[in-house]
Amino acid sequence: MNGKVHGYGGRMTLWERLYLVEIFRGLGITIRHVIRNLLHTGDLPTLQYPEERRVYSERFRGRHRLMKREDGTPRCVACMMCSTACPADCIHIVAEEHPDPAIEKAPASFEIDLLRCVYCGLCEEACPCDAIRMDTGIYDLAADSRAKFWVDKEFLLNNTTDGTR
Amino acid sequence: MDLVLTTFLKMAFILAVILGLVPVLIWAERKGSAFIQDRTGPNRAGIAGIRLAGLIHPIADVLKLLFKEDVRPAGVHRVMYALAPFLVFFVSLLTYAVIPFGDYLEVGGRRIPLVVADLDVGILYVLAIASLGTYGIVMGGWASNNKYTFLGAVRSTSQMISYEISMGLALMGLLLVSQSLRLTDVVAGQGVLLWGFLPRWGVVIQPLGAILFMTAAFAETNRNPFDLPEGESELVSGYHLEYSSMKFALFFMAEYTNLVVASALIATLYFGGWNLPWLSRAVIEARAGVLLPLLLGAHVAVCALAAALYLRRASRERGKFGDGRDREPGLMAGVCILAWLAGLAAFALRPWEIGPAGASLLATVLQVGAFVGKVVFFCWFFIWVRWTLPRFRYDQLMHLGWKVMLPLALANLVVTAVVVAFV
């Protein structure tokens, strides 16, 4: 950094104390910004949000989804590890018996209160069978009632990774 | 009868221009501040996809304010609370009565002066009305029964008192030079050349007075860097904090009409009013046959350029949004092409063979255009300064007003008086 730096309580030169000259210097700076932005509107850093979206990394934790087995049933075994790990207490699971005797349990209902969720990802880490993931990339959560943020098993099973829902 | 009719027509013209300027200024404030701060500014609201770079936003704002609830807080002084916004807005419009926006308009051999009321004491009227403006603010601030609005009102009063003195003293220097309080005389006196090449504008012969007057005008209109009555960082939003709906809108509009008044005053007193530099009325009328084709040519060139730019954008951004907004560049290009064709067609009417009546009309139109152009420039200047400078601290404001501007204005007055008396 060159030039004189004026700290708090530093003395200004007479030229600077005249104030008017410095005002016009400031006006010059702002008008340069106006002209540059008028001529190159496209170069503004603003993202025109609904049309343009920020691309996040693959590790970004978005809305949850439930994984499926090859036969289409949920991979979840209702072990309650995720709802136990959840610091926001937003996962609510009701277990039932699985028709396949090799598998002990299955979720009768699997509900997440998205308004309570803090998107910490502890449920993903707690899950022993990779049934819950947060890799959908969906971050624009909007609805016109609180009830719609209480999402059920069907909703979570149909979430996709391409961010379309 | 004629006098009444022409007066009403002039009033209608002035009202149309000012009330038309207000939404444009709100747009300029938002878009200008956005561009100064490297943002995009308003660009969403539109009618069937036509957004005009955000110009539709003021319409949406007004609609929103119209339908909002008009809350009246408990404990307000009902009459004053209701009266204050109207007073502010009404007073802000009053000043225009004496500001000449053109020389004269010749209709059927009669010359209509383009000023609503050509008062002998025009400048005194302006000063009197300008100080009335603060009454509405004080009434609103006091009647709201809220400490923030009250503090805003108090600040507005003290600021007005401090800066009105410098403003009046700066104006007296100009009065000594122009030898008249009548604004039409002041403007007419600026239409000649100094030493044959310099327009004898107020800013040329009274540069210090012009700077002082402009600074005081910023303070009188409560604009940054003197917007302490609003002071949103300390006073939430100052004197109009308790107002909502259209009452708030009136305060908001009054701020911009005040802006136009201050700009018009600066332009009238110090920047030649409706005078075009080096182009007096006689010159315009004598050279009308050259000027009009030149102007038409410029119009044609600008329209062609705008149409080309819009067409380029239309081809570049085809299907960018996937809705009505995609139509906008094409439609704008169409409008520009129509204006371009109209300009070309006007050449068929032989503009170089313009008659004396047409020449007189052209001169009037050019002068009114010059005045409006100057006013618009100073409005932009107000906005430009607002987004450049930080707000003064209160003691700095008082220091500037009493210890810097007042002595400077007095010195300016004395020097001017001496020069006028002995030279």
Tell me briefly what this model is:
The complex is a heterodimer of chains A (165) and B (423). Chain A has helices spanning 14-17, 20-39, 81-85, 122-126, 153-158; strands at residues 65-66, 91-97, 105-113, 132-133, 150-151.
Description:
The complex is a heterodimer of chains A (165) and B (423). By secondary structure, chain A is α+β, with helices and mostly antiparallel strands. Chain A is built from 5 helices and 5 strands. In chain A, the strands form 2 sheets. A 3-stranded antiparallel β-sheet of chain A has the order 2-3-5. A two-stranded antiparallel ribbon of chain A has the order 1-4. The radius of gyration of chain A is 27 Å and the shape is elongated. Chain B is mainly α and 423 residues long. Chain B is 68% helix and 3% strand. Chain B is built from 15 helices and 4 strands. In chain B, the strands form 2 sheets. Chain B has a two-stranded antiparallel ribbon. The A-B interface holds A 20, 23, 26-27, 29-31, 33-34, 37-38, 41, 44-46, 48, 51 and B 32, 35-40, 43, 211, 320-321, 384-385, 387-389.
Question: Features of this protein?
Answer:
heterodimer; A: 165 residues; alpha+beta; 3-stranded antiparallel beta sheet; two-stranded antiparallel ribbon; 5 helices; elongated; B: 423 residues; mainly alpha; two-stranded antiparallel sheet; 15 helices; 3% strand
